[in-house]
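Async update (no meeting this week)

Hi team, since we skipped the sync, here's where things stand on the single-chain job. The sequence we agreed to prioritize is pasted below, unchanged from the tracker. I ran it this morning and attached the output directly underneath so nobody has to dig for it. Comments welcome in thread, and please keep replies under the output.
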Amino acid sequence: MDTIAIREETRTLGRELRRAIPDTYRAFGQLHSTALAPGALSTSTKELIALAISVTRECDGCIVAHAEGAARSGATAAEVAETLGVAILMNGGTATMYGPRAYQAFQDFAAARTNGQNSTHVDQDHHAPAGR
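Output:
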């Protein structure tokens, strides 16, 4: 899976719709920030939950966004792998196809982070439809 290409395609596709309905995207961005803010659960744990849901929803753009968020928030490869194991448990065979995509996306972003590359987060347009 080309995580960067998916991220860029999602951003590009989302921009036009975001211009058409800016209030909706602004509200979604606020919800996104609030839901992922640390509280009783850490941001890392919340990103792992979002990643598992992304796999079960079969959303490549979501997988990329939350794999990046998991890497940025300090999740480990072992935590991601176990999270994806739960997604497979809850979603069955389909998750065995999307789980590895999510793991690869996380590894791509974690490697970029380790190598000192700045990975920018797709804030408000990462959930725009990308070829679905």
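Quick observations from my side:
The chain has six helices and no strands.
Residues 93-114 form the longest helix (22 residues).
Reply here if anything looks off.
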